[in-house]
Task: structure prediction
Amino acid sequence: MQSTNEELQSLNEELHTVSAEHQLKIKELVDLNDDMNNYFNTSDIGQVLIDKHLIVRKFSPAITKLINLIDTDINRSITDITTRFQGFDFIQDIKTVIKSNIPLEKEIALSSSWYIMRIHPYLKSDKSSDGVVVSFIDISEPKRLSGILEAVFNSTPSCIIAYQAIRNERNELVDFKCMTANTAAEHEMDAQLGTMAGKRLKVSYPEKSLEHYNLYKEVVETGKINHYEYFNEKKDKWYDTVLIKMQDGLVVIETNISDKKKAADVIAQSYENLKQTSGELQNINLKLEQSNLDLLQFASIASHDLKEPLRKIQTYGNLLMSKVKNKMEDSELNNLNKIINASDRMQKLIEDVLALSKLSNAHIPLEKVDVNAVISRIIDDLEISIKEHNAVINVSALPIIYGIEGQVQQLFQNFISNSLKFTEDKTPIINITDKKLSPEQIKLLGINSAEYFCISIKDNGIGFEEAYKEKIFGIFQRLNGNNYAGTGIGLAICKKIMENHKGFILTESILGDGAEFILGFPKNYMGSLN
Result:
């Protein structure tokens, strides 16, 4: 009896061990099934598992764009499922792979999309085959890009040839083999379309001298781009050539510049005539430089200074749209009015900018401009930026001047925006006041101060060194590199506006302790700006 109990206890322990191992195997199977389900449900690749009797075992959701599968189709024959394929026998391809155990791959087109279809044998753990795995990989985008590249490759008038290096058993470069060539290259090399690929350089194109071959070899061995011109006596043509390394080979780009060379000869022969017209060219260049400045001013305004009104329109528009349901509240109507007003001011600003861009070619009549009203509009336009910086702007009573209102607004907006921007970690404090010039300043300018309205814009920002008082008004001058946003043309625009108003700008600054700009406007009416 004792022996029997011991045997039963030993058997019970073995059963317990087997049960634990069984539970572990079940967990592994559950985990494996979860892994498989997650893979299938999240993959962008359409896949379907089909057994050797053509029964659907499993499929991924992505496949449903191509085959009309639903969950109840599991354990149904694939021959009973409707597909959208045309131009090939899908079922026959599956049967072929099941029978041969040889994978099959082909590109298929479905309406406006392209796919790579791969049919692989379904292999079990013992390496035996039990059906197929069908995968569909969307290659529409690469196909589209490939088509674009191929179109560019074959439409360019430049000759493009890709060569692969040919090496001997000692890994020495002994020749080049053409991998591909565009239409222009085949035409230039007098080759039939599609026949250059696979040809060796030294054998097929001996006219490519040793000098060219050595240049090709140098590019492959050093990796450096080579750019040179050469004359082909046989064709009586000049070529501009660029050699670029590509893996163990290179790309050769040759452009026919014969016409350019002939034009250069004509220019050389006409040099004496051109010297006689140099005065006219200098005059044209001066006008062109002036036009370029106007264009730069316009581009700067369009890309930078109009951002604030646009940002305000977007902010209030989004705020209103997020709250509107069946009717508008008073606060929402107020926001809508702000959007409309900001939009109107933006339209006015665009019109004034267009007028500014034509400044060199037109007479623009002056009008009375209330500077206080202009500053008020600017503060309203820059409301968001002012709040973000917690800025304090103090404005005293300012005069009414003669000028172009849009230009005056642009002038003060540039200075106020700069004062907000160049502050580092300080709370910006900007004081805009009527200003009386000191005797030293009057002497420096050589003017009668009674003939000018002077307005001071003073801030507590980062300032600048005395040596840069004139440099800051140059085009693209940025004393702070890329640390602050901007194009480096804003103050050049300010200088241009003051010159057009026959006024002046004085600057005073201490590095790290703010800057002051004094703007002087003539009191006498000038009629118009040139």
Notes: The radius of gyration is 39 Å.
